[in-house]
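Subject: Sanity check before I submit

Could someone independently write out the structure tokens for this chain? I want to compare against mine line by line before I put it in a report. The sequence has 451 residues.
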Amino acid sequence: MQGFRPVALQPLTGILARLRAGIGHLDQPFDQGAHIHARPATQDRQSPASPRLFHRRQRLLAPPGHAARHRGVQHAIQSMGCDVFVFSCGTRGQNAQIAIDLHGISIDDMAAKSYSQFQRESRLAGTSRSRHNQTYRGRRHGHSLPQLPMSLRATMSFPYALTLVADRTATTLTHEVIDIACHMLKGGAPVVLSPGEAVDIPCPGPVPGAPTAATLRTIFARHKVDALLVKTRGRRKAVLVADMDSTIIANETLDDIAAHLGVGEEVRLITEASMNGEIDFESALRARVALLEGKPAAVLHEVLGEIVIREDAATLVRTMKAHRARTALVSGGFTFFTDHVAGICGFDENHGNVLEIRDGILTGRLAADVLGPESKLHHLENIAEERGVKLGATLTTGDGANDLPMLQAAGLGIAYHGKPIVREAVSRQVNFAGLRSLLFAQGYPASDFVS
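---
Independent answer below. Compare away.
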């Protein structure tokens, strides 16, 4: 498709009346997405791909003379107090002018990618073109449309997207799995986020008779694929709040401390009961810390040297920060470790519990109030307020019962390899793949990741 030059602009109300004032009557309403009115390029003596664009409170960008022709009718150029997306595209002497109502629609950063680059990205790794590829070429109501970038068409047309993610270290996301999802959802064409690893499938919102998020998760779990149903509007979040133990890192640091000091089994059992919601977090934490009384604090350095930061933890943080998100590591663990992990990953801030140490010895007590479930929620609310956004613009992730309040309050709360009680309470889950999934769930393609 030659001559495709998209421009994404912000919408305002009253768009239809003003658009008609600028380019004359249209045959169809704008509430159904893109409407195309094509004519031969030679009819109005225009070049096949010459663009005509409306821009907010500016005049129509047209050839000199301050007038333009549409459907063979001369129109004066007027100032437009609205924002629309109008462009021309053409090939082999044909020119199609497209006007799109963008009211209430988010346009992502992929919208301006060239068509040839999109074609390259949309081929899944190691797979051949299937018979279903023809349905992935932008058909609507049985008629072929010009090839807009897939992400733009998806955002225009559907309120939700199903994000499928495979664990790239263990398996591949196949065309067969994608086809199952497309058949179930009856939505738009798949958008490849990472070949062989992740795709978005635009789809209608939850309606009676449609598969639920739990159903989709169960079906694709058989293929070791995570399925996250997310809203497309406001999808990229302005705040990230993440748990540390068993989320950003693979360790449970308090259990590791206890193992070094010979009280590992006692502490492990209390930790397990707490993370499953069988014991309230504060009581469990104080009981475990009490078992450390009289032990040398030097053990903290030994445990620090054994910490394993999960692959792509830093990529998650840096990518969101590159898009102006505020990031925080908020843990029921200890600041001795959160300071270190936050520094490596690049978090803007970190919060945790403080162990009391006197003369190099652990006292078995905390030096400050307990940071528990409600404290995590409080930090989320404060960070969102400081960032100037509502909770709907936040992303949280964690695995334990003490993460539930912040997971349920955030606009996008994702249980990351969660405990059973968390999986029962949180619909969006990552149970197979890694932390890259949290970026895919926001619509980021792997090409936008910041390592």
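---
OP: Matches mine. For the report I'm noting this point. Residues 1-150, 152-156 have pLDDT under 50 and may be disordered.
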